[in-house]
Amino acid sequence: MANCKKVSKLNSIDLSSPHIPTSVSLLKQACMDSGFFYVTNHGICEEFMDIVFAESKKFFDLPLEEKMKLLRNEKHRGYTPALDELLDPANQLHGDHKEGFYIGIELPEDDPEAQRTFYGSNLWPNSDILPGWRETMEKYHQLALEVVKKIARLIALSLNLDANFFEGPEMIGNPIAILRLLHYEGKVSDPSKGIYGAGAHSDYGFMTLLATDSVSGLQICKDKDAKPQVWESVEPLKGAFVVNLGDMLERWSNCIFRSTMHRVLGNGQERYSIPYFVLPSHDCMVECLPTCHSKQNPPKFPPIKCETYLLQRYRDTHAELSTYNEL
Q1: If you ran DSSP here, which 8-state letter would residue 92 be given?
Q2: Dist. CA 125–CA 145, nearest whole Å
Q3: CA 217 and chain centroid, separation
Q4: Which of 312, 294, 292 is nearest to 251 (CA)?
Q5: CATH number of domain containing 204
Q6: Is 58 helix (H, G, I), strand (E, B) or coil?
Q7: C-alpha angle 59/148/305, rounded to 5°?
Q8: pLDDT tens readout for residues 97-121
Q9: I need a labelling partner for 189 at 20 to 30 A (CA). Which of 53, 86, 169, 286 fits?
Q10: Pairing verdict, β 78-80 and 36-40
Q11: In sequence order, which residues have a C-beta less than 8 Å from that of residue 130 and are 6 or more positions away?
């Protein structure tokens, strides 16, 4: 694949292992090295994951006019067409050659919390067209959050914090959790011409839990300032999730842990993936953790509210909804 010279060898964390110190050690090494690792024995069976991917494909197989009826709204729920997202404007000719569908935490409209930027009601396909689709995605949303909580305990321990540190109501006890179904069209990427499945970027939040099909495409760059940049392929591992850290954890950890640049290059095959983005609550103030700074290593970032940071990143990378008004 273009611009990719080697396969990245990522640590694999067994979430069922009773030997916590080993898991913490492996995870800490991965978080300091690349911010990417696999998790296995996570508690979600392969049979159910097969169903989730099959249902995702059913949605993307719908005619475009049906999908556009569910065009994403101001709450960032619903369908995102191909080229809607531009993750790397300095190097991309057009937007990403992928389409997606956002699903957040479902709250009824009369719930006061539903007025928050990233809470509210989801957009759902008509049940006559895709029966059982909503139920499958809601179940996966719940199961994925439980996996994230298991990983968060190991992350907390690796930062010399209490195991439950990230589970408080200001943290992921009341999270912004966004499930995103993705379909990459079978277009061959060409970085020299600015054509990407997904442009180079780092994720915005706490961590991302990524399920992929068997098609390669994901690449990471451990040193974004290197000239030239070296990109490594992250290969799918059957039955495992790929986990990567987001910008907020990099800020929390004062850059001890890394939010690494990554991208997707298409190789002519259709590809499906399902990232699950988890962030703390809207009002969480993301600032350097007490165990991550000292007189010799003062905080590198000013405190910032989660909602403020996330809103700005979405504005920077997504097309204005008004561009679709004339379609």
Answers
A1: -
A2: 23
A3: 15
A4: 292
A5: 2.60.120.330
A6: helix
A7: 95
A8: 999 999 999 888 888 888 888 898 8
A9: 53
A10: unpaired
A11: 55, 58, 59, 62
